């Protein structure tokens, strides 16, 4: 019994959706890069017509702001430039911020009187609430990439969904 090559799925099942892809941009490690990065991510989502829920966009933009802020505040000495990468899949979106500083940050809950220190903790909370995941990875250059990945739609049982009908 001879078997031919394995059957290939139809192209419409394997071809990427129009909004899928990876976009990367760099910015100086300056405070002014925080709003610029947030606007660039928002504009990219609109240009690519990514079908993402508004509450996920809000969380993603806050996460992007926090990650860029952390890179600017904690890595600028060793990393005068940072990179922001946005990856969009069929049902998810990931934002990653890379710098050349080798230190891996840890999420800590700041005390009520603290002015800062909540950035990565906030990223973890927003990501968990959206049903996503986040992590820190070392880069080939010896630095790190801090990323958060969110589903395009909030979880059905999450706090952002309407209450069930009676």
Automatic annotation (TrEMBL):
Entry-linked PANTHER family: ANTI-SIGMA-F FACTOR RSBW, ANTI-SIGMA-F FACTOR RSBW-RELATED
Classification via InterPro entries: Anti-sigma-factor_SerPK, HATPase_C_sf, HATPase_dom
Gene3D superfamilies found in the cross-reference section: Histidine kinase-like ATPase, C-terminal domain
Keyword Kinase: yes
Keyword DNA-binding: no
Domain of life, per lineage: Bacteria
Keywords associated with the record: ATP-binding, Kinase, Nucleotide-binding, Serine/threonine-protein kinase, Transferase
Domain Histidine kinase/HSP90-like ATPase: 28-146
Name of one Pfam family that matches: HATPase_c_2
Source species of the chain: Streptomyces rimosus subsp. rimosus (strain ATCC 10970 / DSM 40260 / JCM 4667 / NRRL 2234)
Name this protein carries in UniProt: ATP-binding protein
One Gene Ontology term of the molecular function aspect: protein serine/threonine kinase activity
